[in-house]
Design goal:
single chain; mainly beta; 17-stranded antiparallel beta sheet; two-stranded antiparallel ribbon; about 5% helix
């Protein structure tokens, strides 16, 4: 299999009342700021680009993420991160972070800092594992989700099948259901919303978000296109295009 040298990931959104409203707020002049892509006769507007660079051994060395491409250039945000052994070692001068992992390699604490080194955000978790070594429960100890927790269930292929997100009082807020194909690729996700501290709670879902995934692959088996169709109509359809450059 060929080794990857560079991947340019472009993310696009289709026209939708929610997305169009946000675009007008961010770009009131209406200036055509970004590129577009046509798929299944649908026009998708570019929202972000992420460049990923790899060394001769196929290890990720740097990412450059630019978002807000539906706005004028002065409002774009750029986030650069360098990696060593697959882990971030430096980031943009105006954004630094620190990640602490447990013995399983999962994050149990995450902090971000401003350019002066002051803590901007801090999140801390307590993780519980099942007999297969998979995360069974995640408790939020610090951060804006403090007191909330999630429960995870897996299928016989060790793939996440159902997850539950609970509020501080133990009320179910979200339920996520994943469906996979024979190759273990996610093909459908259903997200049931039961309520939160702001909208109140109920025993049946207030609404369900349904996402269906279609993918295309190159000769090396890498995904070069992913189409996320929102069958619920509550969100814009999303298109991700990966332009892959292989080492010679």
């Amino acid at each position: 299999m060929k080794k990857i040298k560079h991947i340019k990931t472009k993310t696009f959104f289709a026209s939708h009342p929610l997305y169009d409203t946000m675009s007008k707020l961010c770009n009131p002049s209406g200036e055509d700021c970004g590129a577009f892509h046509i798929y299944n006769d649908i026009i998708f507007n570019m929202d972000s680009v992420c460049d990923q660079y790899y060394d001769e051994n196929g290890q990720l060395t740097e990412t450059v993420y630019v978002r807000g491409l539906n706005q004028q250039e002065e409002y774009w945000t750029v986030h650069k991160t360098k990696y060593k052994d697959g882990k971030p070692i430096s980031e943009s001068e105006d954004f630094q972070s620190e990640r602490i992992e447990d013995e399983h390699g999962n994050t149990i604490e995450y902090k971000t800092f401003d350019e002066n080194g002051a803590i901007v955000t801090r999140q801390k978790y307590k993780l519980s594992y099942n007999e297969q070594g998979l995360i069974q429960k995640r408790e939020h100890l610090l951060g804006f989700r403090k007191g909330r927790y999630s429960i995870y269930e897996y299928n016989d292929r060790r793939l996440l099948s159902v997850s539950y997100d609970y509020l501080k009082d133990g009320s179910l807020s979200w339920k996520f259901i994943n469906f996979y194909d024979e190759q273990g690729q996610l093909i459908r996700r259903e997200e049931e919303f039961y309520g939160d501290d702001f909208e109140g709670m109920q025993d049946t879902p207030k609404y369900t978000l349904i996402s269906v995934f279609t993918r295309e692959y190159d000769e090396e088996g890498h995904c070069i296109l992913e189409y996320l169709k929102c069958e619920d109509g509550l969100q814009p359809d999303e298109l991700t295009v990966n332009e892959i450059e292989y080492a010679e």
